[in-house]
Amino acid sequence: MFVKHLTLSHFRNHKNTEIEFEPGVNLLVGPNGQGKTNVVEAIEYVSTLSSHRVAGYQPLIHKDATGAIIRLKVSHETRDVIVDLELNRDNPNQLRINQSPIPKMRDVLGTVYSVVFAPEDIDIVKRDPSNRRSFIDQLLVQFSPRMAGVISDYERVLKQRNTLLKTARSTGTKGSALSTLDAWDESLIKFGSEIVQTRLSLLERIRPHLTEAYQAIAIANNEPTILMKSSLLGSQIVDDYEEAELEYLTLAELQKVPVLYREKLASVRNKELERGITLIGPHRDDLVLLLGDLPAKGYASHGESWSYALALRLASAKLLSAESKTGDPVVILDDVFAELDAGRRDRLDACSQCFKQLEKKDVRRCSRCMIAKYCSRECQVEHWKSGSHKEFCSAAVKNARQIKSDGGTDADVFLRNSILHVEMRGDEICKKNSATAVYQAISK
Q1: pTM for the full predicted model
Q2: What is the rounded CA–CA span in Å between residue 110 and residue 118?
Q3: Which of 116, 171, 218, 374 is most buried (most C-beta within 10 Å)?
């Protein structure tokens, strides 16, 4: 699967934007604030009906507009599909697929598969359980679009049940007067059990891909493991399950989940009435990310945490490629290379090249691109065409020194790039200002 064309109307800062894409690598380069991440976000929203930056869709609409339109043309084998999403501030949102109106927005799920690597991915490893729950739930919705409805139903039941618990606490309701709560319990167990079981099954399928992906990026001896810490097990009732010594739910308990749910719900009834809140369920569970024998959160270095987060995304892409009907997902790298050392950056780049469409934003940038970082071959060509070789030379020297100070090992790449630049320009002044200067910079 690959994206052929994207049209944005009043989406974020894009009032009217048309972008053509090709199979393979597509590079988005430009100054900060021009809307590159907004392009990423638009493709992601069509794929998952969610954004990695905000909750809800209202912020996606241009501040001066009453609505936004995303039109995405995707291709799989010989078949093209055009998806039109109309997001409205006040009126119901609209969906059309190949010009045919679709009554439910979530019916778009399963039409476009994508995996986004973004700077916010570090939160999956380092921050709260809600970040890890969002990661696994977004992925399971891509595999099984109907789960979006199950999650929505669970959240609705949870909200109603919490309201009833608060009311019972404030009024002192007891005994037979709580029969309504029993009815909500059955719905909670039904939807909650399906979410827990689906998460558990998905974790089992993603584990081998996670190990392979982490080893490919980090080349380390520590093996990553992902486990589910469940509020359905054990006897503890605490507010922060991340810190609790709870048991891990395994595949062996998969069929027992509804029974475990019902038993634990009955045992915590009095505590829930005291606190006025639902204390167990998938909204209280957590994914524990281990690196070796230790949790990545709190023990892993910044580089290891980044590698873990990226490995989770890469494993997701590998699993989608293996199990989805449309083959490879659209893989999008949104400014993640700047956080990695040279070795990890090159290995992630190599791993991501295997997918049929790859979109990169701000990768290996240089001063001519307004953001001084690593200069790409494509950008060098622009330098050569425009004749701005002096600017390129100063950028090459700066880049080489930065790589050297970072302890990197690929400074010689920039030397070779500079020499190639000299060969194409045939400019002796350039030779003095680039190749020699870079060589001196990395030799110090």
Answers
A1: 0.74
A2: 21
A3: 116
Query: What distance in Å separates the CA atoms of residue 55 and residue 215, rounded to the nearest whole number?
Result: 33
* Pair 308, 216: CB distance under 8 Å: no
pLDDT digits (tens, 9 = 90+) for 270-328: 899 999 999 999 999 999 999 988 899 988 888 888 889 989 999 999 999 888 877 78
Low-confidence stretches of the chain (pLDDT beneath 70): 175-177, 220, 235-246, 336-444
Q: Taking Cα atoms as reference points, which of 360, 425, 363, 361 lies closest to residue 392?
A: 425
Report CA 393 to chain centroid distance, whole Å: 36
- Alpha-carbon gap, residue 319 to 212, rounded angstroms: 12
Long-range contacts of 378-384 (CB under 8 A, 24+ apart): 378/27, 378/29, 379/29, 380/417, 380/420, 380/421, 383/421, 384/421, 384/424, 384/425
Which is it for strands 248-249 and 2-11: parallel, antiparallel or unpaired?
unpaired
CB atoms near residue 427 (< 10 Å): 17
Q: How many CB atoms lie within 10 A of CB 428?
A: 9
Sign of the CA dihedral 381, 386, 390, 392?
negative
